[in-house]
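lol ok so funny story. i was supposed to be doing the assay writeup but got distracted and ended up predicting the structure for this chain instead. priorities right. anyway since i did it might as well share w the group, maybe its usefull for someone
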Amino acid sequence: MSNTIYIGYDFKVEPLQPATEILIAELGAAGFESFVEHQEGVTAYIQKDDWTAFVLEDVYILNSDEFKITYEFSEIEQTNWNAEWEKSFKPIVVDDLVTVRAPFHEKPNTLYDIIIEPKMSFGTGHHETTHMMIQHIIRNDFKDKSVLDMGCGTGVLAILAEKVGASQLDAIDIDNWCYLNSLENVERNNCEYISVYQGDVGLLQGKHYDMVIANINRNILLADIPNYAKCLNANGVLFLSGFYQEDLDIIVEKCSEYKLMLKDKIQRNSWVAAKFKI
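and the output, tada:
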């Protein structure tokens, strides 16, 4: 990847929240691969091969009257990406129990210590959806459970699920970079029970789990809920995030078609992480 050329967009956002969250979500859907938040907004990166002059055409928040968003962009050669992360990636602590940090951070005193080399993948814990899914995992019983982490990103949720007692885990992501990054992070955290795969819901054929974790986005969740329901064991639990509070009703309605009932939810700013049970 050392010769990969990226286009970097520096966005200045007023007010910062929730506009920055929404902007990152929309940019992710448009093909941007990585985001570094800063005091004035966010810098977003997309591979030059994936870039077109119309890449921001469907990013609706840029045309919103509620927020003032300006940007400039330039071509960047990826020569020292990890150094950029070292400058911007700070450790996070969730409920005083879980720390998500990079290898260059000091070892914490929390019960669970997860080391993530984020690179270009999502799932450092900084985004609201990952933070809330971490909360769900530490608040529920994963001991000796079989677990699917769908859209695993960095693998952080699967890694935590093993640390809290899960005994058999599959981590799946359609993106090759995420697949490779998850493999690295699984090894880095000395996990023994996580298998990492590159692919989509087609890999779930014949698979069954006690717990399914899916932190993706609304449209993919709506399309894939039938597959998640099919692979859940009796009394199985489904955790979903990657959508806004305003989308919860449609998610609940879709889940109810497959006898998955809403049991709990966590909200952080405008984002939601929901727990469903058969």
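The two ends are 43 Å apart (CA to CA). The CA atoms of residues 252 and 262 lie 7 Å apart.
back to the writeup now i swear
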